[in-house]
Amino acid sequence: MAACFNGQEVAGTFVLFDAATHTMFVSDKARAQKRFTPASTFKIANSLIGLDAGAVKSVDEVLPYGGKPQYLKEWERDMGLREAIKASNVPIYQELARRIGLERMREGVKKLGYGNMQIGSVVDRFWLDGPLAISAVEQTKFLHRLVIGSLPMSPEAVRAVKQITLLEKTDAYELHGKTGWVIGPTPPRIGWWVGWVERENKVYPFALNIDMSKETDAAKRIPIGRECLKALGKL
Fold first, then answer.
1. 39 with 128: CB under 8 angstroms?
2. CA separation for the pair 120, 134 (Å, rounded)
3. Where in the chain are the domains?
4. CATH number of 2-231
5. How far is CA 187 from CA 84, 182, 190, in A?
6. What pLDDT shows up at residue 159?
7. For 190, which of 41, 43, 144, 216 is 20 to 30 Å away at the CA?
8. In terms of Cα–Cα distance, which of 198, 196, 200, 194 is closest to 174?
């Protein structure tokens, strides 16, 4: 799998878990265990916690973005989680986090066993700036528990999150996923792509992160991840 990264001239890691054989495929073992800020990959967990806690009634309940100019023009609209997760709409998910509240959020992150489980005291920034951090291996284990239904969350919340993370459906497989982009004070920025493949009644959770030294590297996340999935025969 290292060739997938070398071809795109970026450093990174890819992890895939095959639950049927209890095998974890890893490219760059040391990096796979290193924790980074989850950025927008936390939208999966944020959705679960929000739905489970009743902070939103459904993924289609419209949340306000706040009326201020945003980094992306498409974020300057009120929308529900179904649309917001596809657009990776930060202000909508910040509103969801504020509705969840600090204590319920802290409790939810601990229930999920998500990374270092540290959210600090700012309820709507901790997944963007820290202190929350998670490794590629931990992302994969979290997603495995999500897809097999072993998280302590309501079945309705789990079902809804599975729906809104669907990226692609073919006769052979379903692909679910979410990107993330960690914008730190100094380069390189960290690019994430996490998700899972369902095929032949089996699930294969995966996580990728790369160093992004320039903005154009962001577009490499999904192609590298797809190449790794193909190399492992999952796409």
1. yes
2. 15
3. 2-231
4. 3.40.710.10
5. 27, 10, 9
6. 98
7. 144
8. 198
